[in-house]
Structure formats: structure tokens, C-alpha cells
Design a protein that fits this description.
The chain is α+β, with helices and mostly antiparallel strands and 514 residues long. The chain contains seven helices and 31 strands. The two termini are 51 Å apart.
């Protein structure tokens, strides 16, 4: 049977309309989805012994709710435990699966696989490390996987940052530290603004059952912790974290090696002037040329290599790489230090402002702490030759040059990373940007559509002004952006998103030969 053309068009329109509605709904409600799994229990225990050793006990009970927890991510169907045989002894207490009908399936011996951790490849200093891969058996929807192991360590230094929200909800989390009464252990919950008080309980008690010394027991209990948010540009402390430590590693002797052998060679390769660009170039060199072995500092006994050792071996942990970069920058006269909760960043001070650089990737250096509240300014003026891209049928395209602050993260956020719905604040940048530029055009071309003029302002948040107009052979572009605060609360997010969208709404001008 043949259908008239107009009937086919009507059907196609309905299909496209349905697809558009579905896409819009998916975009708007993408943050609402079924959970893949849930931790019924997460338990962390540290026993710091008087003889200078310690024991770390870990247990999790995770229930599988969707196949994706096993197939797409493959992070619940297997458990990996890295350890350093020189300093640590691993004991597996029990690993089993409780199926939906209550049947217990113990893991067979051939499901325990010992191997070199992938994080330790390409670095001779870590080739003796081992990883136990546990391939879980008896899995099905609704089953619960139980893993319980202990690591005995030849040291009792503790420096841990434990995130209290995970990739899936946690019904109960226990964190326990037992230590001698004559030892000081510091503890603090970071990000308390995002942690309801009814979800946490802390108790301390003294017992007398070990070595005739009264050890102290610190116990934290957290309940019904929601899944950790995963949105771009979140504040650093948005995920509550429990910090435990009885000593802070001293990095200063390692990175204060001014002029260590090889540093000058690095500077000769990447530095051509003073300022932020050189700092970023040095960091990029370290990222590209020093292999990252992403090992938790506890497996190294919270020790780190010196800058010289990292340079000679060409590899290291994130802490090692931070030590190296700090040494390079200090050797060149900058003020730099290892920084970050996990000591995987470098802090650099320029004109009293603190900047942070990651040693894991080439992300732009960014202001840190109170420096974030400093209003970042940029003023661009001048007359330039306009470069046109030739299109068909006598049309031309002029791409508006991108504004940027050399060596720093842009103070605005790409609209593509700002979805319609958001549940966390935005870590923005306070800024005051002014650009008034003129571009000389070839004779005989005219802007299509006439003058562009857009303005938008919200009290207490910011404003945007964008104007493009032609006068003779001159194209004048005015761009002004003001963001009044560095942290955008959820209630102001929609307005901030509008400002960012308008700021980036015009990136090119269409022209046509007269």
C-alpha cells in the first residue's frame, strides 16, 4: 500500500517530535536514576600497636541491584587489593556471596589471582608490589558480596582521608581507630555543611585489654549516606570526608633541593620567560615525562622519594611527582610546596595569591582558598585585522577570538557543563572582564542580520553585555562579564547558568559580500 507524501511527512514529524521530547526529558532528569548497588556495610578499622606496627581491617557488604554494577563498570564483580610485601602482610579473612535465596557461595581458591598491579608497571621501584584480584562467584541480581581482609603493616603512621559518600548509597559505615593512650590521633570531619548531623555518631572509650596499657578507641558511625554527587565544578569539600592522622609527612626536605641535578635541563627545555606560563610549562613537563604510578601512600609507609630519585627513575607516585615539581620551581626562585589533601598538588604563591596545580594532568592552574574570592580582571582593547573564512555563495565567517587569562583556568564555565538541573553548588570564579575590540574587514563585506545586542543582569550574581555592530569596514565587539561571587548556591544556579549561556552564545559573525 502506498502512502501520500504528506502523510509520510506527518508521521515523520511525530517521530521527530517524540524523539525531541524524549531527549529533553533525558537531559532534564538525567540526575534521577535507579541505583546500581548499595553498601549494606562499610567498615574501616586501624589498630596502632605500641611496638610500632599497625593492623588495617577492611570489610564491605554490597548488594547488587542492577546488572550494570557487574557488567558496565565491572567494579563490583571483582575486588582488588594492592599491598607492598616489604612492609605489609595481607590476610584474607572471608570472601563469599549471599544469593537472593539466602544460599552462601564461598569463593574458590582459583578465584584468587595474585599479580603485578597495573599502577606499578613501568617503574622498577615498585615492581615488587603485589595485587590480589578476587573474582567473585555466585553473583545474581539481589545478591550480596562480602569481602573481609586484614593488612599487617610494619609501621603505625596514620594519614587517611575517607570519603563518606561513594559511587552508590551506603546504609552503614563504621570507622574505628584503636591506639595507645600516650599517642595523639587527630580526627576531623571535613565538609560538615553537607553532612546532616543525624547521620553521624562519634564515641570514644578506653579499654584495658592490651599490653597493660589503656588503649583509646575512637569510633565513628555513619548511616544512610546518599550516593556521592558527580557534577562538574563542585566545591572541594562537597563530599564529606573523615580525616584521621597521627603525624603529617614532612615533604620540605625533599622538595627544597634547589638546583638538584637535571633541574636546570628541565628549565632550559620548557622555560622561556618568567611568570605563570613557565610554571605551567614545568608542570606539563613533569606530567608528560614522569610516569605516574597511582599507588596509595600507605603502601609506601607514607614515605616519598626525593626529587633526585624521582628524576633519575622517571617515575613515581602522585606525591613523588609533586615533590619533584616543587623542587624544580623552588630551584628557579618560585615559592612552591606540596599541597592537597592527598599531597598530589603543588601550591605556588604569586603576588601573595595562592595557586594550585595538579601533577596528574594538565588542567589549568587555579586560585585556591581565599584567593578564589579575589576578583579576577581582564581588560582587552585594540584594533586588529579581521581574518575571514570563505564560505559558499559569497558568504564569509568571522570567528570571534576567544578571551583567556594566560596560564590560568578561565573564570567562566562552559555552558555545555552546566545542565538544566543541579543539586550541588558551583565553584565559580569572581571576575570582572571587559573587552572592547575593533576588527578591520575587507571592503565590500557586510554583517548579515544587523547589530547584535544582548544584556542580562542579576543582583548579587553578575551581569553580561554582548554587542556586535559594523560601521564601514570596522567590526566592533564589546564583551563584558561580571561574576560577583566565587561560590554559586543551588538557589542561584539557574540565573548563573543563564549568564554563562549568554556569555558564550555568540562565537562567530556571518558576513556577505555586497
Amino acid at each position: 500500500m502506498k502512502f501520500p507524501i504528506f502523510e509520510v511527512e506527518k508521521v515523520m514529524k511525530k517521530i521527530f517530535l517524540a524523539a525531541a521530547v524524549f531527549a529533553l526529558c533525558t537531559l532534564q532528569f538525567h540526575t534521577v536514576s535507579a541505583q546500581d548497588a548499595v553498601y549494606k556495610l562499610l567498615r574501616y578499622e586501624w589498630t596502632l600497636n605500641p611496638d610500632g606496627t599497625s593492623d588495617y581491617h577492611y570489610r564491605h557488604e554490597v548488594q547488587i541491584l542492577r546488572n550494570r554494577a557487574l557488567v558496565a563498570y565491572a567494579d563490583k564483580g571483582e575486588t582488588f587489593v594492592v599491598y607492598n610485601p616489604d612492609l605489609e602482610t595481607l590476610t584474607v579473612n572471608e570472601v563469599y556471596t549471599i544469593q537472593k535465596n539466602g544460599t552462601r557461595v564461598d569463593m574458590p581458591q582459583n578465584a584468587f589471582v595474585y599479580q603485578l598491579p597495573s599502577e606499578c608497571a613501568d617503574c622498577g621501584r615498585f615492581n615488587h608490589y603485589r595485587e590480589l584480584a578476587m573474582v567473585h562467584t555466585g553473583m545474581e541480581l539481589g545478591c550480596t558480596i562480602v569481602v573481609d581482609y586484614t593488612i599487617h603493616r610494619q609501621y603505625n603512621l596514620l594519614y587517611e582521608n575517607i570519603p563518606l559518600q561513594r559511587e552508590c548509597p551506603v546504609e552503614k559505615m563504621e570507622v574505628k581507630v584503636q591506639y595507645p593512650a600516650d599517642m595523639e590521633v587527630e580526627y576531623k570531619v571535613l565538609g560538615v555543611d553537607y553532612l546532616p548531623s543525624d547521620k553521624v555518631t562519634r564515641t570514644m572509650s578506653a579499654t584495658t585489654d592490651r599490653n597493660t596499657v589503656a588503649p583509646v578507641t575512637l569510633l565513628y558511625e555513619f548511616k544512610d549516606m546518599p550516593q556521592a554527587p558527580r557534577e562538574p565544578y563542585m566545591p572541594e569539600d562537597i563530599v564529606p570526608t573523615l580525616r584521621l592522622y597521627n603525624g603529617v609527612p614532612d615533604f620540605a626536605p625533599a622538595f627544597n633541593q634547589e638546583g638538584f641535578s637535571g633541574a636546570r635541563d628541565v628549565m632550559g627545555l620548557v622555560m622561556n620567560s618568567r611568570g605563570k606560563e613557565n610554571i605551567v610549562n614545568a608542570r606539563n613537563y613533569v606530567v608528560d615525562n614522569i610516569h605516574l604510578n597511582d599507588i596509595h601512600p600507605s603502601h609506601c609507609g607514607y614515605r616519598h622519594a626525593t626529587a633526585e630519585e624521582v628524576w633519575q627513575s622517571g617515575c613515581g607516585t602522585a606525591v613523588d611527582k609533586a615533590v619533584l615539581l616543587a623542587a624544580i620551581l623552588n630551584g628557579e626562585g618560585y615559592r612552591a610546596a606540596v599541597a592537597g589533601d592527598d599531597a598530589d598538588e603543588v601550591a605556588v604563591w604569586i603576588d601573595t595569591l595562592e595557586y594550585r596545580l595538579s601533577v596528574r594532568d594538565k588542567s589549568p592552574m587555579s586560585l585556591y582558598g581565599k584567593a578564589r574570592d579575589e576578583v579576577r580582571t581582564l581588560n582587552v582593547k585594540g584594533t586588529f585585522n579581521g581574518v575571514l573564512d570563505t564560505l559558499e555563495d559569497g558568504f564569509f565567517n568571522f570567528t570571534i577570538p576567544f578571551l583567556t587569562i594566560q596560564g590560568e583556568r578561565d573564570p567562566w564555565i562552559s555552558a555545555s557543563q552546566l545542565p538544566l538541573v543541579r543539586t550541588t553548588p558551583v565553584q565559580a570564579s569572581a571576575c570582572d572582564i571587559h573587552s572592547n575590540t575593533t576588527y578591520l574587514l575587507p571592503k565590500g563585506v557586510k554583517m548579515v542580520g544587523g547589530k547584535i545586542s544582548r544584556k542580562l543582569a542579576f543582583d548579587g550574581i553578575g551581569s553580561v553585555e554582548f554587542t556586535v555592530k559594523q560601521s564601514g569596514n570596522k567590526l566592533r565587539i564589546v564583551r563584558n562579564l561580571k561574576v560577583e561571587k566565587s561560590l554559586i548556591p543551588v538557589e542561584d544556579y539557574a540565573k548563573y547558568r543563564q549568564l554563562m549561556a549568554l556569555w558564550q552564545s555568540v562565537d562567530a559573525v556571518l558576513l556577505r559580500a555586497k
